[in-house]
Amino acid sequence: MGAQLRVYKQKIASAQTTKKITKAMELIAASRIQKALGRVNASGPYERAVTRAVSAVSTYSNVDHPLTREPEQVRRSAIVIFSSDRGLAGAFNSQIIREGLELAELVRSRGSEPVFYLIGRKAVGYFQFRRVAHVQDWVGDTDSPHFHTAEEIGRVLVEAFDKGGADGGVDEIHLVFNKFVSMMTQAPESVRLLPLEVVEPDDHESATAFPIFEFEPDGVEVLDALLPIYIQSRIFNALLQSAASKHAATQKAMKSASDNADKLITDYTRLRNNARQAEITQQIAEIVGGADALASGK
Length: 298
Known about the structure:
This protein is an alpha/beta fold. The chain has a single domain, classed as 3-Layer(aba) Sandwich (Pyruvate Kinase, Chain: A, domain 1). Strands 3-2-1-4-5 form a five-stranded mixed sheet, with helices on both faces. Helix 1 runs antiparallel to helix 5 and helix 4 crosses helix 5. The longest helix has 79 residues. The protein is elongated, with a radius of gyration of 29 Å. About 3% of the residues have low confidence. InterPro entries: ATP_synth_F1_ATPase_gsu (IPR035968), ATP_synth_F1_gsu (IPR000131). It is found in: Cell membrane; Membrane. It comes from Microbacterium mangrovi. One of its GO terms (molecular function) is proton-transporting ATP synthase activity, rotational mechanism.
């Protein structure tokens, strides 16, 4: 019985130590998520304004630009997967990697070869472990992304797109990232970045959905100036969405771990009390039995 009590005490102490760690990580994630959400909300209006400007130029200038032109044949498709550098975030990384692989299967079914670009150590580790080739990766800047990372990613992707699938580049680019919906929900999302999809307004919508623009200089030069900014802003917004989603997923996972530690402590405490009561009962029975034996021997 004494050995059993020691085992339960050790398990209770271990669960209490684990709870301290998970509770601290939960609080750290909670403090970081507010800053991450602030950055997402701050980048949203700029990203939407740039997207609207690019759509307006593409719609009203009738420019045949390389970044907006649909290829005759899609030979290679770039899939950019946004994961995190650290784990302990529940299904955050596994669901986004699964979403990227499902998109790759869809791309293959259309007769195109998927080409992977990876962001975050978790995606890199997954692909290396399964020996799946990828073109380039970026690690170390997922918790609090910087704009220069988005600039570098955008430059690499645009260079690959300019080369084209026939010359070892790509014919289209997809972004796969976790979109922050709420503190409890982070939904994987796939967005085609290039070629740029221009959404025309429906007939029933107001004809003033876009203002009437006059371009000076011409539309091609305006698009040349706007499209790099558009690509960088979309990638940066995806980085920020992924970072906010990761912190929310970490907070949720660590809260669940703390709750599980509480349950373990309660269960082991009950088992320890039962073992202690059984030991006391056994000792009392032995004392009573010894007393009866002495009384009967007289």
